[in-house]
Design a protein that fits this description.
Elements: H1 9-16, H2 24-36, H3 40-60, E1 65-69, H4 79-82, E2 87-92, H5 95-104, E3 111-115, H6 126-133, E4 140-143, H7 152-165, E5 171-177, H8 185-193, H9 203-206, E6 214-215, E7 221-222, E8 243-249
Parallel strand pairs: 1-2, 1-4, 2-3, 4-5
Antiparallel strand pairs: 5-8, 6-8, 7-8
Helix pairs in contact: 1-2
The structure holds S-adenosylmethionine.
S-adenosylmethionine (SAM) binds near residues 13 and 97.
């Protein structure tokens, strides 16, 4: 790959997650984020572990077709590495992620990477969906690391459309940024300067966004605490929450 001149989120995350698909320009940008938000590497490692747990849970429910929104790079414990037998379609809005993702997946016959703007499901090429996943059965949908950048009205609409588009029995995993980020105004400014405004939420403001999707038993929890085995959302925390996660089904 040509050495890039601008940093990219997928590669910055790859750096924080200990991967090998990033460049000095990405490390430089990662360090700038770490200066204003030292928890960055940990937060994204925790998030990647959450992706692992929700993906394994979805597969344990008999689902072997996955679609991933705002995927970043397909490295460091991303979905197809957790469920290697499944068919997985990664999507993202970032052309660098798509290009590098396609290269990394070139030898995987059951995994593909294509463009989709998660705020507009019509941007997803249905022929690629069919080509990668075959006839749609119950789907696993991973919508992690992207809702934080989508305002309520649009997110509500997207989740509603996803509900209509997916077959009954589909399971959707999400995360949302918590309000702890508000303690880091420089982080918010930095993100804004990249054109990525951060929407921070709590369980009360998250719940109405889910619309017709039914919450699974663990409920809406800090991502580090989310486990499929929790039958009731008993965990309370006085710590500031960086990210909440929940799994819902149709
Ligand atoms: C913070 S990274 C999350 C990557 C991965 N899902 C994870 O949780 O580790 C956010 C990703 O969402 C992508 N993204 C941002 N806005 C998007 C949109 N409207 N549609 C699709 N992808 C988007 C970015 O390009 C980036 O790859």
């Amino acid at each position: 790959m040509e050495v890039p001149s601008v940093p990219n989120t997928g590669r910055i995350l790859d750096y924080w997650l200990g991967g090998s698909h990033h460049f000095p320009i990405d490390i430089e940008a990662a360090k700038v984020f770490e200066q204003v938000y030292p928890q960055s590497p940990n937060v994204f490692r925790t998030l990647r572990q959450y992706i692992g747990r929700v993906t394994r849970y979805i597969e344990s429910q008999g689902i072997n077709q996955f679609i991933v929104f705002g995927s970043g790079l397909p490295t460091c414990g991303n979905v197809h590495e957790v469920v290697p037998q499944a068919k997985v379609l990664y999507t993202d809005i970032d052309q660098d992620n798509i290009k590098l993702g396609q290269q990394l997946l070139a030898n995987h016959s059951n995994v593909n990477y294509t463009f989709c703007d998660a705020t507009n499901l019509d941007s997803l090429d249905q022929s690629v969906v069919t080509q990668t996943l075959g006839t749609l059965g119950r789907l696993g949908v991973v919508f992690v690391g992207v809702a934080a950048f989508i305002p309520d009205e649009i997110l509500t609409e997207v989740l509603d459309k996803l509900y209509d588009w997916t077959p009954a029995g589909t399971i959707l995993a999400l995360d949302f940024d918590g309000e702890a980020g508000a303690e880091y105004p420089q982080l918010l400014e930095l993100l804004d300067s990249f054109g990525a405004h951060l929407y921070m939420r709590n369980p009360t403001t998250i719940k109405p966004l889910l619309g017709r999707w039914q919450l699974t038993a663990p409920g809406i929890l800090p991502v580090a605490a989310w486990q499929a085995e929790l039958s009731t959302p008993v965990l309370k925390t006085s710590e500031p929450v960086f990210m909440y996660g929940c799994v819902v089904y149709k």
